[in-house]
Write a structure and sequence with these properties.
Layout lengths: L1 E14 L3 E8 L3 E7 L8 H4 L7 E7 L9
Antiparallel strand pairs: 1-2, 1-4, 2-3
């Protein structure tokens, strides 16, 4: 199910050369892990600043109960 929600960035960890794993806190679903692909590439460096801890974001994602990582 496609979901739109406000989220607070709690923590990020580098994953591969161009990706991050981010833990986001949402009101509806609680703490969720997301993989953000390509955010650390040379073209997307300005976008990476959006994922600093305590940043408030509007995210759109597909929520599935049985998934460990969301995109």
């Amino acid at each position: 199910m496609l979901t739109s929600s406000k989220a607070l960035v709690v923590h990020t960890v580098k994953y591969s050369n161009t990706s991050l794993v981010a833990r986001l806190l949402t009101r509806e679903h609680g703490l969720l892990p997301f993989i953000v692909k390509g955010i650390r590439s040379a073209k997307s460096q300005s976008m990476a600043t959006l994922l600093q801890p305590m940043a408030l974001l509007q995210v759109v994602f597909t929520f599935r109960e049985n998934k460990n990582l969301l995109t």
